[in-house]
Prior knowledge:
439 residues; alpha/beta; seven-stranded mixed β-sheet; four-stranded mixed β-sheet; 16 helices; disordered N terminus; disordered C terminus
Amino acid sequence: MPLLRLERTTSHLCRRHRAAASLLTFNVDANTTTAARRVRPLVLALSKSLSSTATPNKDVKIAKNRTLLIKVSSSKPISTPTIGPTGTAELPPMEDWRKTFRFSEKRKRKTLCNEETAKKLAELFVPEGSKDKIIVEGYAGPGLLTRALLALPRERIKKLIVIEEEPHFREWLDPLQKIDDRLHVVPEDAFWWTTYSKIEDDGLLDDVKTHDWNEIHPNLQFVCQVPNNVHGEQLIAQLCRAIPDRKWFFKYGRVPLDLITTSTMYTRLSSTPTDYRHRTKVGVITQAAAHLESLLPQEALEPASSHFFYPTKTAAKGRTGKVAEMPQQHVRVTPRIVQGIDPDTLEAWDYVVRNLMITKATPLSKCITGLGPGAGSLLKKVTDPSLPPEMQIDVKKTPRELTTEEWRSLVQAFEEWPFRPEQLSIDTSFTSVNKHSAR
């Protein structure tokens, strides 16, 4: 059962009990003033008892580790991190996580619970030869991956900024800050743009230099265990949408993203025109902005329940079924040097891709009218023989079969069209929404 440690000077105690009473550990509910009032008289009574030559109270047992354990009534357990003998804030054993992390988690968040997997991922994200990396870790959970990253050779990581809003997880991260000066815990939600603005406002990225777009940024890197629900999909989509206009961290250069997401989401992101069954709007936009690759075989994270933990109020078995067994996949997102999406054209891309992918199995010659009355006139432009071969479109193709170059040709024709709709956007961005009202 979790313990709250209260220390008390015992120099006034008799020699017989001084060594044993150097540390008093009480099992109390620290959240209630009632319990606090109970503890004080017990401490005074204990001190008086120990300072006498009489036999210690029978309810007080001197433990072998020279710690006195006093049982006082308490309410629900409080998970409290302890500093281990190696100088590391140790997490509880994996088999105790269900008892330790008992709370409701609204976003179907998973968090790494397999130490060997965490070590493997840390080495994968920041391999040998890396130097002075500044890592921003989203949805860090209690910090198993955080600890694995900090355990790498110190010269690899200069600074580790972890984002974790959940207090039950954060109390296992906060002690690490006292041990390693490279760690900075940000008590916010990684889903909101305002979180990253706060990181910059707090000066945590002041030492990040802007690098030429032709090279991958050698220092700044984003790592995230993405939630399994719609918020996770929205987060990935918004991060990738920031690439063409070089917003967010991309203003510093081509910052790589290492994401752990569901295998389903990975398939939707990476499906190509030749393997189009799962091709979606988010995949089209992402592939136009970035290169995608998985550096870890899917089998390495199977079964999911052996590598990831889902917090739940139920201590007995925890979250089971489809959520716990949802396969996970690593994906590295690296911005393209030459963008498929030109600056300031994202709104047009959104409109064209969104409306055509609604009827993604219908030939372009028929579904193009979804862009507006008279949109059929665009077919002549996208089949113009004077266009580069890769931008000429076979209008018998369906939208899900179009390549990035063909989408680009179609969007350019749409932007030049004098009768295109004036209102293109729908408000799906999470950048300007009040985070308290939107939840």
